[in-house]
């Protein structure tokens, strides 16, 4: 099953702040492999396939560095279409001597972790076949083990690395939140995501259509962590894509029923979770 199209609800785009747009553009093109879809004075919209926006980077006026121990972005995650594409990325990083922060086997996926020049977290991963995922009592088995780089590199098929595979999507987003009880209610009863993994009382993963996760939520920045200033490095907003206008309307009703604020601005439906993470509701 493709978990990033209807009938699933999934993350479509992520918008982040950076301190130096030119420096970040160089990184996201040369290291990560994005293409520029649109470019403005203080903003650039990036794509993998030349037509679908996945990441927007902005340099706001009076931008400030990333604020520690606040809510917001832990990482956004780029899902590659197949394992060989991840192998090509690893080879690209090795060839260009670019160090990653981590490389993990999660059973359901294999992943690389790194940060952009401002410390915005990035995951680049490939899923294992869903037939190999193990479920028990409504939860999917996940772990964090070292990635077998040597085995992964056997997938390299030769040729020149030309950036992100065109079928790359925004696989998931992982957020710092201030607490989990109200946050879980917001994402479950409001937005319709199911809990698929819990990590004690510090983190949980949620999804639709039994994906291993479209949304990750954690309190690792501290319970009660504050919302960062709007002009600081980090997350501005991310979008959720609904399978239909009817599904979006039903979700808006559910959000309002639990007391969440929903409003429309310039034709875009907006809400935010209890920790102040801004979300655009799209179809």
Automatic annotation (TrEMBL):
GO molecular function: lactoylglutathione lyase activity; metal ion binding
Keyword RNA-binding: no
KW Metal-binding (keyword) present: yes
Pfam families the UniProt entry points to: Glyoxalase (PF00903)
Domain VOC: 10-127, 169-283
Keyword annotations of the record: Metal-binding
Protein name according to UniProt: Glyoxalase family protein
């Amino acid at each position: 099953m493709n978990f990033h199209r209807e009938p699933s609800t999934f993350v479509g785009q992520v918008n982040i702040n950076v301190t130096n747009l030119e420096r970040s553009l160089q990184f996201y093109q040369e290291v990560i492999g994005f293409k520029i879809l649109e470019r403005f004075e203080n903003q650039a919209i990036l794509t993998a396939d030349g037509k679908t926006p996945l990441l927007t980077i902005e340099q706001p006026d009076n931008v400030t560095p990333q604020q520690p121990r606040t809510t917001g972005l832990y990482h956004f995650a780029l899902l590659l279409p197949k394992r060989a594409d991840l192998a090509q990325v690893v080879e690209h990083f090795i060839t260009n001597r670019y160090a990653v922060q981590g490389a993990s086997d999660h059973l359901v996926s294999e992943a690389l972790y790194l940060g952009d020049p401002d410390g915005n977290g990035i995951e680049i991963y490939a899923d294992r076949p869903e037939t190999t995922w193990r479920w028990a009592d409504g939860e999917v088995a996940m772990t964090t083990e070292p990635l077998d780089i040597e085995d992964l590199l056997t997938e390299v098929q030769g040729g020149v690395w030309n950036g992100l595979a065109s079928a790359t999507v925004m696989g998931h987003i992982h957020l710092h939140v201030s607490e989990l009880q109200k946050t879980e209610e917001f994402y479950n009863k409001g937005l319709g995501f199911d809990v698929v993994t819990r990590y004690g009382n510090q983190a949980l993963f949620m999804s639709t259509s039994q994906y291993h996760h479209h949304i990750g939520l954690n309190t690792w920045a501290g319970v009660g962590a504050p919302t960062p200033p709007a002009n600081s490095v980090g997350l501005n907003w991310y979008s959720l894509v609904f399978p239909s206008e009817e599904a979006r309307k039903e979700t808006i009703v559910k959000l309002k029923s639990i007391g969440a604020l929903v409003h429309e601005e310039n034709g875009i439906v907006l809400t935010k979770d209890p920790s102040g993470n801004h979300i655009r509701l799209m179809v």
